[in-house]
Amino acid sequence: MTTEVRVPTLGESVTEATVATWFKKPGDAVAADEMLCELETDKVTVEVPAPAAGVLAEIVAAEGETVGVDALLAMIAESGAAVAAAPAAKTEAAAPAASGNDSVDVMVPALGESVTEATVSTWFKKVGDAVAQDEMLCELETDKVSVEVPAPAAGVLAEITAPEGTTVDASAKLAVIAASGAVVAAAPTAAAPAPAAAAGGKDVEDAPSAKKAMAEAGISRDAVTGTGRDGRVMKDDVARAVAAAASAPAAPAAAPRAPVAADDAAREERVKMTRLRQTIARRLKEAQNTAAMLTTYNEVDMTACMDLRKEYKDLFEKKHGARLGFMSFFTKACCHALKEVPEVNAEIDGTDVVYKNYVHMGIAAGTPQGLVVPVIRDADQKSFAEIEKEIAEKGRRARDGKLSMAEMQGGSFTISNGGVYGSLMSSPILNPPQSGILGMHKIQDRPMVINGEIKIRPMMYLALSYDHRIVDGKGAVTFLVRVKEALEDPRRLLMDL
């Protein structure tokens, strides 16, 4: 039994469309409502879902063809009926000859909420290598975390469909694992498609509507970045390029790189920025461009905290199984101050101010891959021990690249400790959409006047960067003074003073 895939209703007065992209090929399994192809009209782009589950038996309208409303696009066969059709399709595509029972697809795992794509950073296996079930095959890099991809089954890596450097979406196929006996003949062929794809990258046919739009706008193909399959330019890509070109005069052009002498160039190394580093750069610049950012400073005498920590750290660790550090003191002090100055814990949403009756504390952590900010949820409700345990555990997983997306979302305020690297004073940048971030710094003995006498005290500079659109100077200074008071006399935290 077969099911027809036909052109859906295209909209009022639209009678035809162009088949822009097929996301499946004959022989591929499809699920009900899975996107099969994309059509382009002179007004909109239309996605065509599968009307039933099965196997794509035949593509009737190839890419680039113009079709009318209700025209036949493809045929979907039941899984059992498609067995005979699938080998023919695979032969035509020169794919490895492993039957469905002998091969397992390696797919992109769940990337987390709001993450739609990743970059293949490293393959730990090559085509022809034997793999054990759950053995790590490759590592993906998103704009926030690294994701390891384990082997879903034991066998031999027959094909790598997404080589290193490839950007893949959340439902993409990464590789194929074949049964040991079936892969002997397939392994040499498996690597062949990659060079062909790379070589043919510039010969991809752009969508007809995109060509027409480029001609009308007078924009060259080189000025448009294609987002379609294999880099194909779609109509929306042209519209974005035209809009970018129109707004270009308002934004200063990037400064050209200064000429480099030949002998210096030979000693340089050019490394592509990781997706995480690109995202960090973009978000930090967005914070500067969006918020009215201002920083206020103060200093705190750490004597009381250091004495308290020294007196109880052994007992604390023995009872709670966690080291007593300074981060729990600062976290509790900030939670205390945020109750009095709630706008520092708020955010702007359009023309509204969203006040948060909770404190989800972001703790900035440096990792080999870049800066990440795991969130301690409901920090205002947690004890010193709970905070220390969570900071230690999330800091360790941040360095190992094991944090999930959920653990880095939803923060309402952030603490950044540059002092661990020796920073004496700095102005931290906001973590959007938050309105405040506290910078901690190096503890350094300095001469201070105490009751008319010069004393040597362990002092730390504090910096609060805040969004002046929502936080006034009085509120910012009050917040920092309350943090200072709580740290210089931790008993105030117990008395809620």
From TrEMBL:
GO terms for molecular function: dihydrolipoyllysine-residue succinyltransferase activity. Keywords: Acyltransferase, Lipoyl, Transferase, Tricarboxylic acid cycle. It is an enzyme of class 2 (transferase). Pathway: Amino-acid degradation; L-lysine degradation via saccharopine pathway; glutaryl-CoA from L-lysine: step 6/6. GO terms for biological process: L-lysine catabolic process to acetyl-CoA via saccharopine; tricarboxylic acid cycle. Residues 2-77, 103-178 form the Lipoyl-binding domain. Residues 205-242 form the Peripheral subunit-binding (PSBD) domain. Its EC number is 2.3.1.61. GO terms for cellular component: cytosol; oxoglutarate dehydrogenase complex. It holds the Pfam family Biotin_lipoyl. InterPro entries: 2-oxoacid_dehydrogenase, 2-oxoacid_DH_actylTfrase, Biotin_lipoyl, CAT-like_dom_sf, E3-bd_dom_sf, PSBD, Single_hybrid_motif, SucB. It catalyses: N(6)-[(R)-dihydrolipoyl]-L-lysyl-[protein] + succinyl-CoA = N(6)-[(R)-S(8)-succinyldihydrolipoyl]-L-lysyl-[protein] + CoA. Its cofactor is (R)-lipoate. Belongs to the 2-oxoacid dehydrogenase family. E2 component of the 2-oxoglutarate dehydrogenase (OGDH) complex which catalyzes the second step in the conversion of 2-oxoglutarate to succinyl-CoA and CO(2). Forms a 24-polypeptide structural core with octahedral symmetry. Part of the 2-oxoglutarate dehydrogenase (OGDH) complex composed of E1 (2-oxoglutarate dehydrogenase), E2 (dihydrolipoamide succinyltransferase) and E3 (dihydrolipoamide dehydrogenase); the complex contains multiple copies of the three enzymatic components (E1, E2 and E3). This is Dihydrolipoyllysine-residue succinyltransferase component of 2-oxoglutarate dehydrogenase complex.
